Amino acid sequence: MTLPRLIVGLGNPGQEYETTRHNVGFWFVDRLADQLKVNLAPQAKFFGKAARSGELWLLQPGTYMNRSGQSVAALANFYKISPAEILVVHDELDLPPGGIRLKQGGGNGGHNGLKDIQAKLGTPDFWRLRLGIGHPRTLNLAQQVADFVLHPPRREEAPDIEQALARSLLAWPRIAAGDFAGAQQQLHGKAV
Fold first, then answer.
1. Catalytic annotation present for 111
2. Residue numbers for the site described as Discriminates between blocked and unblocked aminoacyl-tRNA (predicted)?
């Protein structure tokens, strides 16, 4: 079993983006840092905020979403962390609000953060925790995708997204132990 050594939460830096759908990866890493009792702090050489808990690193890139790979590659290369030891947590348009999928590799679905990470690592073979935010078309909204992801979830969507974050944190012990298959079973099942 491969243990994760780097957990990356994707988002955009800056107060104006804190509550937007695109920052759901930051939200997860903030909660995981609290759970692990570590503090994320600016790390210039990694182009973001980072924290360490034993052999595990948490990272929030300080670059904008489309440059996330710069931060991820800097930390992964410095500590010789392989793509199979990286979990990227990100917002997912193709899942309804509150949907969760854990998978390794695959395409980027047009997600600029994933696209840049794949380019900088030279492979798509890292783990992804996809947290559903819905798509403006399936939610019957006239918003363009770029505008949609840069706005906070609507009141009716927020509880589902919060529940997905809570369920993902409940699966953390399995992920931390390298039991990705067990975590997938736990996360892909019906919410309780």
1. no
2. 12
